[in-house]
Amino acid sequence: MAGRFPGARNLTEFWANLRDGVESVVPLSDEELLSAGVAPDVFNQPGYVRAVARFDGVDLFDAEFFGYTAAEARVMDPQHRLFLEAAWEALEHAGYDAARYDGSIGVYAGAGANRYLPLIEQDPHLRDTMGLTQLLVANELGFLSTRVSYKLDLKGPSLSLRTACSTALVAVHTACLGLLNHECDMALSGAANVNASHIAGYLHQEGSFLSPDGHVRPFDADARGTVFGTGVGVVVLKRLEDALADGDTVHAVIRGSAVNNDGAVKVGFTAPSVSGQAAVVAAAHASAGVEPSDIDYVEAHGTGTALGDPIEVQALSRVFGNNPPASCALGSIKGNIGHLDAAAGIAGLIKTVLALGHETIPPTINHDHPNPDIDLGQTPFRIHNQPAPWKHTPTHIRRAGISAFGFGGTNAHLILEEPPVSLKTEETEPITDTNSDTEHLLVLSARTPQALDAATDRLAHHLRAHQPDLARTAHTLAQGRHTFPHRRIVHGTTPDHIATALETRDPRRTTTHHTTHDNPHIIFILSGQGPQHPHMGQQLYEQHPTYKQAIDTCAEILQPHLNHDIRKIL
Fold first, then answer.
1. How is 444-463 classified by DSSP, letter by letter?
2. pTM of the predicted model as reported, rounded to 2 decimal places
3. Rounded distance, CA 492 to CA 286, Å?
4. What is residue 180's three-state secondary structure?
5. What count of other Cβ atoms lies within 10 Å of the Cβ of residue 449?
6. 190 φ/ψ angles, rounded to the nearest 5 degrees
7. Cα–Cα dist 141/139, whole Å
8. Domains observed in the chain
9. Minimal CA–CA distance to 195: which of 404, 5, 411, 407?
10. In this predicted model, what pLDDT tens digit does every residue of 199-244 receive, in sequence order?
């Protein structure tokens, strides 16, 4: 997975904010509004809401890394930039280098409406220099997924779509179908949304679906509207049997999913529908082969609107109606980060995956008193305003539902399940003793010396913070990362030992080099000047199969000539 969401530059910060009930819709000062180009006569109006849901660095992009010029990057829709970077990060998090993956990788993704192109077209120099064709290529939604496929050399299906606020979950649903139909062996799926007012606030109008005070209050009596925000999220998907066979880390299993449309039987085109939402939830349950009683938690669409929230609970109650009161937890991420439009569903999915992994249901913030149109006590649902344990038990498989509903009536619901128990047990029991005397070799590479130093510092921090299994860490760094010309190796026996070497750039433990060779030769050198000692190669022989095989081969060749097994002498 990879993601950047309001108040969080990465998923570690994202989970900490969710767990601690942090509201990342933040107020803006006069100075911030002025620097964003908002005139005082605008932001001093009574209805102006000084609130944004954003993350730092939304305007930044590593153009050179992906082979773009600064001018090309400048005219590209920021949603495309963010999604391209997140796709790369997600593959790295999954432990795969696309260039070495023996299979096809598809891309299924979407984005919000493009509000960037009109700004570019206002600059006559850029418009005339780049040309209309280049501006189209840099901003057309249809090129969101194919740009990733081109830059990462992915050869599976590449689909860009938009179904308003349900875009991300519809993309994930479509990716799952592509995998199950064997159209690809791995899939990147998600969405990006950049809110046009991410550096400013907005003018509230009475009766609109925007919050009048800059707070989103899911299912609350004071719910008056939502706040749109900026974010991007990507997940890497594989068929479960393939992931298990390949030794992947499985964070969660998508058990089933469904997509439908409300049709015409509702108040208006943008209005929600009880029957449509209930039907898609029931269809997802049927796809997953589960009953409502099997679901512990529902991550709702939960936009914090006076109309939408009661309709959603009514629809869920139709499906879950036979369950006991308060038997299923209900929550919404929008109180934390606002409404991410096309990326709303991927934020809810990643939140739920993290909740499964941390065995904790995060609180639904800004919920103090239930909406009077939601008789919560008469429903199967409960809402937590504090973190709640979500522990694994031997007799119960933890499952969750995730909803996303779009203007125009395209609804999506997904059933998520915890990883297989055998896999969880394996992950918690290291396969090697990281405190032994075994030496491990870790490799790093980057495009520039500065990037290599940054990666070095991140690895040192990771080793100290998580104390990972070094054999697995070494394998992922060697096999699951793309190789770049600026390279560094480090060796040591424990995570802390290696972290210290990385932090100090200890020349006895680290080596840094620049190479133009993609596949440099490896040689083994014996000095031949008398440093031999008893048991000199024993540890190598016991721990490295390739070395052992070479010694065994030589011993068999020499046996008839020497009448001795040299391994006994060595």
1. EEESSHHHHHHHHHHHHHHH
2. 0.90
3. 51
4. helix
5. 12
6. 165, -155
7. 6
8. 2-423 (3.40.47.10), 445-514 (3.30.70.3290), 523-570 (no CATH)
9. 5
10. 788 999 888 889 999 999 999 999 999 999 999 999 999 999 999 9
